[in-house]
Amino acid sequence: MTDTDTDLIIAGGGLAGATLALALAKVVPELRVTVVESFPLAPDAVPEDYQPSYDARSTALAWGSRLIFDELGLWSALSEHATPIHHIHVSDRGRFGATRLNANDHGQNALGYVADNRWMGLCLMRALLTTGVNWQAPAEVIGMTNTPGGVSVRIRKDGVQSSLTGQCLVLADGGRSGLREQLGFITRTEDYGQNALIANVSTTDRHQFTAFERFTDAGPMALLPSGSPTRAENQSALVWTLTDAALEELLSLSDEDKCRKLQERFGWRLGRFTRIGECHHYPLKLTTVDQPVRPGVALVGNAAHALHPVAGQGFNLALRGLTALVEQFRRAVDSGVRLGDLAILGEYQRLHRQDWQQTVQFSDSLIRIFGHGLPPLALARDSGLVGLDLLPGAKRWFARKAMGTGGRRPVISSVDTFEEPASNDH
């Protein structure tokens, strides 16, 4: 491939960028796609006998995300290391409010899944190696200018700079590269004053494929079922919200004392905590970009929005955005319109905007409603949780939000129709 014969350039080959590349290869195979990724690409390092480690990081996938991976032909592979969530239990620590969701009540095999991140990456890479997607790795996009034909992207590889022209650039490199700001996109950031601690834990009781969302006066925490996709085990993935001071104190403790602290905050619904693995942490901020597109460039994934991990909405929202973008690129090719045309990217933004606004509001409101210990508000939210558990209509709405099936979802398995499928949720 020369510097001038690619159609789409994707900056970032992580989960979002790789999924976008695979979807384009399936749905718009005539497009020439180049992925620029900072980490080396090693096709021979894709093992056939993969076994996740205890400290493997994972991602919560909603039922709607499973449908997307189904359409990409990837779910049968992903499901080998994806633990189903059959039940969700939401509670307010120290108070009576609680609500419960069960997959069977909504006509689904599962409400969602907990998937091993590295396994997801390997499955994507295996699939991409069978396509014509071009990879430049290790390399990074360091700048972009608009041209009469689209964009000219500056790339640095092995210390050498070069340029690559295409119709459009998609930023899928998260929010930390600085490229988004360099290109002039305006972000809005709200610091929650909290950190997310991520680790795998073991308990004396098996999880029974139940995800726990536990709100406490110190912030929300979640335990997601992990381990075998077919057998309930004693391992769960922990997401624990902590202030700076609480995080510093916790990290200084022994594993035994960490488990003791966790027991105090979570309680005994899974018995005794017996092990905590390697702890990762990052500051929690709500970051949004009001205008994530402009002529020749679009933001996706964490480059466009970074949410609080409560309710596990971030990556699922990103996947729905990717399908909306693929839909518009398919229509651009069919209509003979350049991929970076603002009419194409603007329609993508219009179709995805309501979804991300509602998802951001949903996640942010949970933090605000459950982040205050004032007795009147605590009583109101407890009554709300009880009502949610008793009212079928409200419970169905909440379940659709959790499963990622509450909004418009383009069908990317077909290039002929974009009708929304009939819901399986009743």
Q: Your description of this structure?
A:
46% of the residues are buried. This protein has one domain (8-189, 285-403): FAD/NAD(P)-binding domain (3-Layer(bba) Sandwich), CATH 3.50.50.60. Mean pLDDT is 83; it is low at 371-395 and 414-426. The chain is built from eleven helices and 21 strands. Helix 1 runs parallel beside helix 4 (117-128), helix 1 (15-27) packs parallel to helix 8 (314-335) and helix 10 packs across helix 11. The chain has 426 residues and is of the alpha+beta class. 33% of the residues lie in helices and 29% in strands. A hairpin with a 2-residue loop joins strand 14 and strand 15 (219-225).
What is shown here, in short?
This protein is an alpha+beta fold and 426 residues long. The chain is 33% helix and 29% strand.
For this structure, what is the CATH class?
A: Alpha Beta
Biggest sheet features = 9 strands, mixed
CATH superfamily: FAD/NAD(P)-binding domain
Tell me the overall shape: globular
Provide key terms for this protein.
alpha+beta, six-stranded mixed beta sheet, FAD/NAD(P)-binding domain, 426 residues, single chain, globular
